[in-house]
Amino acid sequence: xxxxxxxxxxxxxxxxxxxxxxxxxxxxxxxxxxxxxxxxxxxxxxxxxxxxxxxxxxxxxxxxxxxxxxxxxxxxxx
Length: 78
Prior knowledge:
Blueprint: H1 3-6, H2 12-27, H3 40-67
């Protein structure tokens, strides 16, 4: 069996979908342990999306607070 036949194949579309699902989870404020993929490659795509979604959520919250005249609270990031 060749290496190509033995290795799992992840399509760009499936990894994009995993990333988008992670992004939406991060944007919605879900915990990272809600990651649904058992395989490492789609799990990594989901996690990358979650990190980006979480960052976007934080930026949006900061912008809302700034517009409302609230002083931003500095938080430690994990």
